[in-house]
Design a protein that fits this description.
By secondary structure, the protein is mainly alpha-helical. It is 77% helix and 0% strand. The chain contains four helices and no strands. Helix 1 runs antiparallel to helix 3 and helix 1 runs parallel beside helix 4. The chain starts with a helix and ends in a 13-residue tail after the last helix.
């Protein structure tokens, strides 16, 4: 039931690095890119790394959705104190993850900095 936020952050960073590498390779004119086997091989590698990181980020986030589903559909089986401890432990990592997403999109996300949404 716990989301491994350290792993989530690690995979999000790997995805960001691969996207940056792909962006540099996409900036190369197509003819030059196609003629250079090292560039095409590197591009393929970064696509694989980006895809694997994206899949892992989605899987880690899916575990958080699993907690939601458990709460909605089997709320009578929940240990409230355990849930409270896990949410408390997850909050700083989730805030950090949201801040990273905000930096990635180039603006602060609404409700950032721990502010509660109305």
């Amino acid at each position: 039931m716990t989301v491994d936020l350290e792993r989530l952050t690690e995979k999000a960073a790997a995805l960001r690095r691969s996207l940056a590498d792909l962006g540099r390779l996409l900036a190369i004119p197509e003819a030059e890119f196609a003629a250079d086997r090292d560039k095409t091989a590197g591009f393929r590698y970064h696509v694989v790394v980006a895809a694997e990181a994206a899949v892992e980020v989605c899987a880690l986030m899916r575990s958080l959705a699993g907690v939601r589903n458990l709460l909605v559909h089997q709320h009578w089986t929940i240990d409230d104190l355990r849930l409270r401890r896990e949410v408390s432990a997850a909050m700083p990592g989730l805030e950090s993850f949201l801040a990273q997403i905000g930096r990635f999109v180039g603006r602060e996300l609404p409700g950032a900095g721990g502010a509660a949404e109305p």
